[in-house]
Design goal:
5 strands; five-stranded antiparallel beta sheet
Length: 192
């Protein structure tokens, strides 16, 4: 599901006809991809299986650091050759008091420890994403960015230097500044 709907974008642009619906939907999709790439996040839930190695453990050896935002785990399988499932009573998602989650911490009193036998990985089947649905400000950023892309189709140049006396203004390339301001707090830190 897209962060913004076609109806939301058409309402924002005050478009009543259906002539450009295919283009507008493509621009919504393009805006969503740009937002994901800019923030290094996905703002809607996806069920997926991901695999992790010994190098993904933190220094303590208790926390498996995951490479995407994690919402829930349906199955956690240790990296041993037996494929041992670790029950949800044996671990916490971290951080405990905030979202999104970025790690799985085995409890100190757990009977399990992370194992990584040859050719085996810890397998996490779960729901991945920053949130189940896009937050309202991400929806607004998607609408605004898609509208910006739509305006580009009628422009012959999109990086014009400002000459106010001549009636020329600068329209910068890339993501508009107001969208960058919305997205700034969501940029995932610490990515190599």
């Amino acid at each position: 599901m897209a962060y913004a709907t076609l109806a939301q974008l058409k309402d924002y642009l005050d478009i009543g006809q259906d002539t450009d619906d295919v283009l507008l939907q493509a621009l919504i999709d393009r805006a969503q991809t740009a937002i994901d790439n800019y923030t290094h996040r996905n703002f809607e839930a996806e069920t997926e299986t991901r695999y992790f190695e010994r190098k993904d453990l933190d220094e303590s050896g208790f926390v498996l650091e995951v490479d995407r935002d994690l919402l829930t785990i349906s199955t956690l399988t240790n990296g041993d050759s037996d494929g041992t499932n670790i029950p949800n009573t044996e671990y916490w998602l971290v951080p405990r008091n905030s979202t999104p989650k970025h790690g799985i911490r085995l409890k100190v009193n757990s009977v399990y420890s992370w194992e990584f036998d040859t050719d085996y990985w810890v397998t996490v089947v779960g729901t991945w994403g920053y949130s189940a649905t896009a937050p309202d400000d991400i929806v607004q950023a998607a609408i605004r960015l898609a509208a910006y892309y739509y305006a580009q189709k009628d422009s012959s140049t999109f990086d014009v230097t400002a000459v106010v006396e001549a009636g020329i203004i600068k329209v910068p390339q890339g993501i508009p500044k107001d969208v960058q301001i919305i997205l700034g707090p969501y940029v995932r830190q610490g990515l190599a």
